[in-house]
Amino acid sequence: MTLQNVLPWICRAHQEGWAVGAFNANALEQAQAIVAAAQVEKAPAIIQVSHRALTYIGSGNEIQGLKYIAAIGKIAAESVTVPIALHLDHGTETEVLQAIALGFTSVMFDGDGYSFEENISIARRLCEVAHSVEACMEAEVGEVPKPDGKEFDEASIALTRPEEAAQFAEATGIDTLAVALGSVHGLTTKQISLDLKCLAEIRSRASIPLVLHGSSGVSDNDIKQGITMGLCKVNVATQLNQAFTDAIRNVLNRDGELVDPRQYLAPGRNAQMETVRERIRFFGASGKA
Ligand code: G3H
Ligand code: ZN
Asked: Model's pTM, two decimal places?
């Protein structure tokens, strides 16, 4: 299939109490693993690429990274018969505009560092551009920290304020809203409990489909609960990187003489595919394409 805007599936998930999985890719093999898993599970899925992955893929030039990924995402989607979206994750204003021009079917503006009012005004502007080509627009209110291995203080996390979520959704016209419920990016163990009271408050004021960031560090119990309460796009990155890298490490540990990258990248790709499949089933998206 050509790349799709999977908003109709996100809206259906919203109504039926399941979630579309949005899976981060940093390399070709990771994108291949995502679409292969979606195909086997007969599920809609999102390949997403973050600002930092673009920097890596473009060797320091994010626009070059976007061009690589636009081509890879298109071919990956065309290799399967289930709906696949290509999403820019945590993009800057410039990257969002460039991604839309390159055919991404979904974009997220990360307003981290902007005031609430500036976040609204940029997101609204970008949303008009996204909608002019029928792309899906996501933005965030509150903060899901990106500690990058540094210490962070769980108590200081700025959760989404329910009244701001409703105001933001209304003022910007965005399709999906990323909310901060206590999760943190990049954790390698499931140690976080979501603030489900905050989620219920947001849900009571805003009907927009909600997005969970930082799911790798959140207990599965809370993810499950959150999905039943209105989280209908769930982002997964670190958990996939763990599966991919662990498999490669095992191969290399077993054979110190190995030099052919295909012999360790293929097991990495397979391991990630199994993890994506497991997440798709866990989110209730299996068979929904
Ligand atoms: O935007 C990407 C995600 O929020 C993934 O976070 O690495 O904690 O799974 P994670
Ligand atoms: Zn995120």
From this structure: 0.97
